[in-house]
Write a sequence for this structure.
């Protein structure tokens, strides 16, 4: 847009250099046209600047949306598939979920044994991953084995 501003400045310089007679009808019209062209140039410059600002803002929003989408995909992968609950009775449901307290934020939530076993426990509130002590995981494995053994005996 700089080239348009330069052309308008050149035309203004010509009008001043030619000592445009603004008291004549033609001089007043030419002077008014130069003023309008100058105003239009300023308006176009403002629109171009606003467009650049908007493009930068859209880029930031796009990056934030991409981050949110990635976070959503990660969270979706971590969520327990509740469609499997239709095939479980209430006792099985309680046996497969364990209460966890996040050491970072203190959030209490339920997670499945596979998360413990894989040391892949992630807090749904703060998103921090943490590992359980090996003795805790061993106790949970023993409890899991006992529960499954007990269920097999009942069947």
């Amino acid at each position: 847009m700089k080239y348009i501003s330069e052309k308008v400045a050149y035309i203004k310089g010509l009008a001043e250099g030619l000592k445009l007679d603004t008291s004549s009808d033609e001089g007043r019209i030419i002077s008014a046209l130069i003023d309008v062209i100058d105003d239009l140039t300023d308006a176009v410059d403002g629109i171009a600047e606003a467009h650049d600002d908007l493009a930068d803002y859209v880029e930031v929003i796009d990056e934030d949306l991409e981050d949110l989408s990635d976070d959503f995909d990660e969270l979706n992968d971590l969520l327990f598939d509740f469609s499997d609950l239709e095939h479980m009775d209430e006792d099985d449901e309680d046996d497969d979920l364990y209460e966890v307290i996040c050491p970072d934020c203190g959030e209490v939530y339920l997670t499945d044994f596979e998360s413990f076993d894989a040391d892949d426990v992630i807090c749904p509130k703060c998103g921090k991953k943490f590992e359980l002590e090996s003795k805790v995981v061993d106790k949970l494995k023993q409890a899991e084995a006992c529960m499954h053994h007990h269920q097999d005996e009942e069947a």
